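tool=predict chain=A
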Amino acid sequence: MTIRAFGRHFREGLKNLVRNGWMTFAAMTAVMITLAIVGMAMMIALNAEQMSHYVANQLEVSAYLKQNLNSAEGQAVATDVRRLPDVKSVVVVTKSQGLKQLQADLGSQYSDLLRGLHSNPLPVTLIIKANNPKETLQVASEVKSIPEVSSVNDGAQYVRPLFRVLDIARNIGLVFVLALFLTAMFLISNTIKIAIFSRRREIEIMRLVGATNGFIRMPFLVESTLIGMIGAAVPAAVLGYVYEYLYRVTGGVFYGLHFPLVPATEFVVKLVVALLALGFVIGAWGGFVSVRKFLRA
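tool=predict ok
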C-alpha cells in the first residue's frame, strides 16, 4: 500500500468517526470504562508485586557464633560465609554492638539490670542476606554446618508461609488481570461490531460498485483502531495523573504500612504503554473480525 493510499484511508477513517457520532461515542466509552478498570487492576497488581518484593528482601539469617569467639574471629567467619555462592551480604554484629542494641530495645527500665552484668553474655552475630530471598533457608542450612556457628535463626516458621502467600497473591493478580483483559476484548469488539453492523448497507454498496475487500476494509480498520487508541489514551492520562498525585501525597509509601510504592514515573510509563498497546490490538482486531463477516463471498 502506498503512502497516498494509506493517507486516503486514514482521512476516511477520521471522517467515519465524526459521521457516526453516537456509535463512535458508545464504542469509545466502552473502551474507556473497560480499560480504566484494567488500568486500576494493573495499579493494584504492580504495587502488590512491589510490596511482596519489599517484604521478601527483608528476610535475613541470624547466625550466632560460639561464645568464646571474639570480634576478629567473627570477621574471619564472616569472610568464609561471604564465599558461599548464594550469599548476598554479611554484617558482623560485635558483642558490644549487640549489647547496645539490646539496651535500646529493652528501654531504660532494664538499664540497671544490664549495667549489673559482670561480662557481656551476647555472642558475635552474623546478619546474612541471600542473593534471592527464596534461597534464605538454603543459606541458613549451609551456615549451620560451619563449626564456629552455635545456632541459626532462619525464621523458617515465617519464611515458608510468607512465600506461599506471596505466590498465591501473585497468581490471583495475574488471573484477575487476564480475566479483565479478555473481558475488555469481548466488550470492545462487540461494540465495534455493532458500529460496523449498522453500516452493512454501505459495505454492500461498495462491493456492488467493484471495490476490493482491502479497499473496503482499511477505513474501518483505521476507524476501529482510532477508537481503541483514543479510548485507551483517556484512562491512561487520567490514571497516570491520579497515581502521580497520590504518590506525591503519600511520599511514595503505602499509607499506614510504610511499604514503598512503585515509582510514579515507572508506573506511568508501564501504564501508558500497556493501555495504548491494548487499545491498538483490541481496536484493530475488533475491526478486522467485524468487517470480515460482511466481506465473505
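The two ends are 23 Å apart (CA to CA). The mean pLDDT is 77.
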